[in-house]
Amino acid sequence: MDQRLVVEIIQRRFEQQPEGGMLRVRLYLAIRQAILERELTAGECLPGTRSLAGELGLGRNTVLWAYDQLLAEGYLVGQSGTGTFVSGAVRTDKAAPPKRLIGTRREGISKRGMLISVNASSSRIQSGAFMPGVPDVEHFPFKLWNRLIARYHGVEHSSLMQYGHGGYGPLKVALAEYLNVTRMMQCSPRQIVIINGSHQAFDLCARMLCDHGDRAWLEDPGYWGARNVLRAAGLNVEPIPLDERGIAPTDEHWSATPPRLVMVTPSSQYPTGTVLSLDRRLQLLERAESCGAWIVEDDYDNELRYHDHPVASLFGLSQSRRVIYLGTFSKVLFPGMRMSYMVVPEDLVEAFTLGNAELYREGRLAEQAALAEFIDAGHFTAHIRRMRAIYQERRDALHEVLDSRLGGLVHSPLTQAGLQSLYTLNGPADDVQLAAEALQRRIVTRPLSIYYDDPSRAVPGLNLGFAAVPVEVIRTAAAQLAEVIEAHMTARRRLGQRPAA
């Protein structure tokens, strides 16, 4: 096929993508769709990245990211010195189109569905060096856990096989006592709502506290998952920049259009690890009270800290009770558990309990009963202590290798909590391309720039998870990653020094 025709196909598909998503994702979806629908078939040569970028009016890095993602997923293959080609993974013979259902209002997914798809940042890869946010499940006491689960699965506990409403009472009692000791929080068991993961909490807060079009503030950089859930719920998400003391809204932010929700990770900001300073905490609570905003405190990994002085929660500090606290078991036990909890102010208890039951239908009471016993018997705190020591050794191994190999090329304060370390890059770098280059060496990283909602503020860096990687693997993989970073930054520096044509 003529290269001009290939460009026209890609351009048409690109223009058909809904606006509002990241350009690199829209381009990736456009090329993938053209391949899946056999408009671009096996062996077809794609234009060079510079050429396509010029034709579409995009940055070359945008095209590089789309190509690298398609290469990683097998839609494209690269042949050294000859170009990039459509792979043979998709059959070239066209299957018969499915019959269109009579009476359908429209084809395809909704605008909301397209917005979710275009902005999705979740990865099919959930393991290996250095996937962030993933705990080690090899050290979890599954034999003990299975015995506890089996104890509550049976006729004698038939009530636990029914739908739930508000969560299992003894688990809420255990959590209230635990939070009082570890997070300096005074709350009653009735204020705790058991949910299936933090994303459900984000969605429940949006639906119970906000109307369509209300404003929500999120840290920038921040957790893409919260951003996408709130946007899907119809909220107007505004990125608020960070500094060395945490989220930093200005007086202009507060006086313009005050938010209805402010979502923060104050004990260990994700992904930077910054701790929100006391003066900022007090200011945030005072301003939220004055303008009627609700603060959602996502305390996703505070149990996994590597110092002796845990930071008190915003919920515990608040006298106005404008804070909803979120905690999770996915990071400290295992991700597949999909169990989290919310602590809500007294005057929201009834509404949130009913909303949770009505929107999501509760259950899994037997697992909640097993978890309550796991906590009451001391297994929970013992597991956390054991994993802290393991994770700290792995964190130190990662920093030792990268800091010694890369020196001034990177900057990373020693991680004080959590499952990952953030490395910013000091010098010319494209972190999306760098992550793709690392993936070719089977090293998984998350580029820092994808955590930014405002690309003008983006700083290049890599988010590296160490928790689920044994020390010996960390040392080998970190040495390989250091080679990739050195080569990438050297190449970028030479490119910058090359005289203009």
Automatic annotation (TrEMBL):
Q: List each copy of the HTH gntR-type domain by range.
A: 21-89
Q: Which UniProt keywords apply?
A: Aminotransferase, DNA-binding, Pyridoxal phosphate, Transcription, Transcription regulation, Transferase
InterPro entries associated with the record: Aminotransferase_I/II_large (IPR004839), HTH_trans_reg/aminotransferase (IPR051446), PyrdxlP-dep_Trfase (IPR015424), PyrdxlP-dep_Trfase_major (IPR015421), Tscrpt_reg_HTH_GntR (IPR000524), WH-like_DNA-bd_sf (IPR036388), WH_DNA-bd_sf (IPR036390)
* One term of GO molecular function: DNA binding
Show the SMART domains listed in the entry: HTH_GNTR
- Signal peptide interval: none
List where this protein forms a coiled coil.
none
Q: Which family does it belong to?
A: In the C-terminal section; belongs to the class-I pyridoxal-phosphate-dependent aminotransferase family.
Name listed for the protein in its UniProt record: PLP-dependent aminotransferase family protein
Record the organism.
Derxia gummosa DSM 723
Recall the taxonomic lineage recorded for the source organism: Bacteria, Pseudomonadati, Pseudomonadota, Betaproteobacteria, Burkholderiales
